[in-house]
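Quick log. Single chain, no ligands specified.
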Amino acid sequence: MAASVEKKFDVNDFLVNHDNGQSGVVQPLLTDLYQITMTYALWKLGKAERIAVYNLFFRRSPFQGEFTIFCGLDECLKFLENFHYTDSDVSYLRQVLPPSVEEEFYTYLKQLNAKDVTMYGVPEGSVVFPRVPLIQVEGPQAVLQLLETTFLTLVNYASLVATNAARFRLAAGAEKSLLEFGLRRAQGPDGGLSASKYCYVGGFDGTSNVLAGKLYNIPVKGTHAHAYVSSFSTLSEIPLTTIQPIANGKPVVNFVELCLQWRKKISGVIGYLSEEANDGELAAFVGYATAFPSGFLALVDTYDTLRSGLLNYCAVACALEELGYRSIGIRIDSGDLAYLSKVARKHFVTVANQFSLPWIAQTLIVASNDINEDTLYSLNEQGHSIDCYGVGTHLVTCQKQPALGCVYKLVEIGGEPTIKLSQDIEKVTLPGKKAVYRLIGKDGKALLDLVQRSTEAPPEVGKRVLCRHPFHEPKRAYVVPAQVEQLLQVFWKDGKICQTMPSLSEVKAKVQLSLLSLREDHKRNLNPTPYKVSVTDKLYHFLHDLWLLNAPIGELY
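-> predicted structure:
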């Protein structure tokens, strides 16, 4: 049992960002207690410095799909840079660990760092698949054990939400804009920031999260809420009734009166009564347009999307045009999104033609309202006129599958490969230190990923290689690759990052390029074709020999 905690620590000691910009929350104490107790046992037994190899991987792609986007590598590298136990950390551990723990262990912890660790990884933003090591670390066993939980928390959610975002992008299509609106529904502030960051990487164009915009240079987007609209009742509530025209010398006019004139003209054109439109809503739109004449985008479904919201928007948009400004568009947050968007587009075209304002026909239509991946496919089937989607809850919380399930397994200790056996074949590990290559066909599409022992020669372009399913003997094929891509690369060695790390926008571009390397049937939403992850013939036989060596032999009576 751990001792009770007595001393209180200042939370600010843990929340100051590191010099490399990583959140101060990411530190060695962001781990499970048993990592530290196991480390003590290893240290006490004199085994802490044994050289080990661990693999971080997942067993099944999320969302019933056949691909995953790997993210979190950059954060893992920053964690290695920052890895050390402070005096405050050690003081706290003295309180939570049993009094039998020797004082020399705390001295040992204080001098620990990651200089003797070598880390291999798949480039961030790559499409990855089950069983393929995303990260492979080699070094003193005690240090590697202490990395496990932190690495997993940095990779699991980042990869999951980036994959979810990539799937939303595939569903929406490349030509549509996608905005992440999930901060208010995310799992706390750290979850909200991570969601904004990795949704952008996965294919979204912007976020409503202002802090994420500041920290990660993500475009920030937003308009107003229903509460803003419903807070106005009458046009008399607008104290500022004029907007300065863009053209010099053009007279200043009463903007409220101009909007009312346009509402009356437009109502007859699109078939709605001006008297049916809500004046409080018009007041809200006028007020917002006064504040942002060049950035006017209105939420139109507070009262009635077509008879009030759309009519009031068109009135304000045309009034702004008369003063030299171009409005942006509308957002629909409820109702039949496909139907409402098509009717709205029809009315925009009518107004554009009637008043010789061709740009209004292309008015941006944004849709929100609890959108998920299936919603996007349904909207595509119905036909719609939506240009942009605002997505929150289903995106950032990954409601379809809330966890990826990455694991971190020992595969080699003291130069000897290890294996974890299970009656569940999915949980049997591939032993030993590995190299991984992606074999690409003549059409530029990925054929399979090949896992092999690190001592084997890499596959060569144009040369036939036998690729085997790791557990099903009849499943095997010869492959002649047109291209060979090395997946596991050295990113950390001798206490420092040894590659130039890409920017967030470069990782975002990597995601799209990597997805293009997959056949369409691997990416489809319904019943995607499984992507092959194979092993070399040598690894296949080594795996099964080690399996037989470690599996107990039963006895019948």
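The two ends are 43 Å apart (CA to CA).
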